[in-house]
Amino acid sequence: MLKLERKELVDLLRQMLLMRRFEEKCAEMYAMGKIGGFLHLYIGQEAVATGAISVLRPDDYVIASYREHGHALAKGCDPGKIMAELFGRADGLCKGKGGSMHLFDKANHFLGGHAIVAGQIPIGTGAAFASQYEGKDQVTLCFFGDAAVNQGVFHEALNLAALWHLPIVYICENNRYGMGTAVERATPVRELYRRAEAYGMPGEAVDGMDVLAVRECVGLAVERARRERLPSLIEAKTYRFRGHSMADPGTYRTKDEVEREKQRDPILLFRDHLMAEAVIKESDWKALEKEVRITVEAAVRYADASPEPPVEWLCTDVYVSER
Amino acid sequence: MAIITYREALNQALREEMRRDPRVFLMGEEVGLYQGAYKVSQGLLEEFGSKRVIDTPISEAGFTGVGIGAAMVGLRPIVEMMTFNFALVAIDQIVNQAAKILYMSGGQYNVPMVIRGPGGPAHQLAAQHSQSMESYFYHVPGLKIVRPGTPKDAKGLLKSAIRDDDPVIFIESELLYGTKGEVPDGDYTIPLGVGEIKREGRDVTIVAYSTMLLLALQTAEELEKEGISAEVVDPRTLRPLDTALIMESVKKTNRAIVMESGAGFAGIGSGIGAIISEQAFDYLDAPVERVTGANAPTPYAKNLERAKIPSKERLIAAVKKVLAV
Ligand SMILES: Cc1ncc(C[n+]2csc(CCOP(=O)(O)OP(=O)(O)O)c2C)c(N)n1
Description:
- The complex is a heterodimer.
- Chain A is α/β, with parallel strands linked by helices.
- Chain A has helices at 6-31, 46-53, 69-74, 79-86, 120-133, 152-164, 211-228, 255-262, 266-276, 282-305, and strands spanning 61-65, 110-114, 140-145, 168-174, 177-178, 181-182, 203-207, 232-237.
- Chain A starts with 5 loop residues before the first helix and ends in an 18-residue tail after the last helix.
- Helices cover 38% and strands 19% of the residues of chain B.
- Chain B has helices at 6-20, 44-48, 60-72, 91-98, 101-104, 134-138, 151-163, 210-225, 243-253, 268-280, 302-308, 312-323, and strands at 2-5, 24-28, 53-55, 76-80, 114-118, 144-146, 168-172, 180-183, 196-199, 204-207, 230-234, 237-239, 256-263, 289-293.
- Chain B has a seven-stranded mixed sheet with strand order 3-2-4-5-7-6-12, sandwiched between helices.
- The longest helix of chain B has 16 residues, at 210-225.
């Protein structure tokens, strides 16, 4: 286990808690009609983005799917700007043009949320290609779901990355469902990490509910990518506590299953661990809750205060030359 | 000015731009060792090495996506489609990703990338290798589309496309690679969105590009013998489109014909024809005519292939129709 200072441990807990409370607020705002479109919550999977992104340098790249609020927060995107984007406001990360599924933040090297399943996988590979081309030692983390591994571009991208020794870590967040399709109904070989064998790259599974385990596993892969230019495939076994999106009641899963999985809540597990190790006390937890609530409320206030994008923006950002 | 082929002109553009900017690289199937399926990248591997002239496996969606990601973070990729028909395998990456990232990111990330290769009907290649792909991309905001018809244009436009900060679809033609023309010495560019009157005339405007440009110019010579003076306007880029130039010509001749080798239904001619009708209706003495490929896949048989593609005879008939002679 990588030795972590108390501050780092608390930061991981805070990060996960912020994701959770932020998204619970999103669900509320969606119910109130302030957020529209598709809203895919990351609740239950927080340990993956938190643990993985915690090992990165600020200039490393992250790219993700449409379920990317957590990754954006972990990469340092401003919660107020994210919320404003979800509200479709002018001060949103992407001026209100991207929305929940398309958060991009160039300043934080966040290459976006992408809504075509697996579409981001070759693009992340391209960022790693550029790092290698320019002789830089940046690493790219590329996140996707378990359903994405059945797309052709998954194969194409991993083949290219292995062939060209690109500094990238592919992180498959196996939450066991692609919308309503259980992974075993989509994929004959259920240990998704084993697909790495086909490309001659390291492949490993990790408990995606254990933030420290994710951090350690991804940390090693990131070092390997940075020093040896070896890509890896990591399968983080996780679970989403909510439906696929706000529109999904999730009837394809039994109540029992969901309740059982909720016992493995990554945030509570980690909190209890830190308490058992006497890293934090009950009062520290309460203080964190309060701190996070203030951040989320400020984000909502910021989003509420931001105006709608002017209609003149409709046809801007179509071409750089007409910007 | 040197007289060189369209292929050499493209090769010069690639070479000069790669010399000028180390961020420019070429990627695709057979672009390196094999020197390009149509030899457009001849000699580039030797000069720039395998770091910048990159042979890929057959995986259009994969390497197009790699180009997009590389472009987002600062490189200037040129992705070669062995023929543009295969771009359909990567159409998700091109349409859903490359064309949209600037917009979705609120202007933060741009995709300065060229996707190039030959397209359009050629020597009995049959349905899957003989499509005029421009109308597939014409519809998509966020893409620029270039279809050069002469060596001079090919070189000047490719250099502009490489320097452009948006994704550019640059469609060449197998039938044009061997054609020759004068190309200015030294570095020059032709801006995207600026067309050219390739032949002055009084009686009718023929809008034509790529291989249809050559057909229009030959046909215009024949019409001249009959006393009909046709003006041939080459938009060169379809998006952005030099609407002003087309209108200027139509206002002078009062008659317009739009040509394309692809199927006419929802094609380029529909688009340009509608713009002419909207913007120059009062100047028109006849409805805009379209001379297009037949609404069928491109057949293999020589005679059928000939029938699929616009011909001199069909263009002459269209000209006579708008002139009511
Ligand atoms: C190419 C494509 N096909 C279908 C969809 C519709 N769709 C959106 S998400 C999804 C399930 C994806 O599941 P997974 O990759 O496991 O990610 P998760 O939602 O579990 O994070 C589907 C089918 C899509 N967005 N893109």
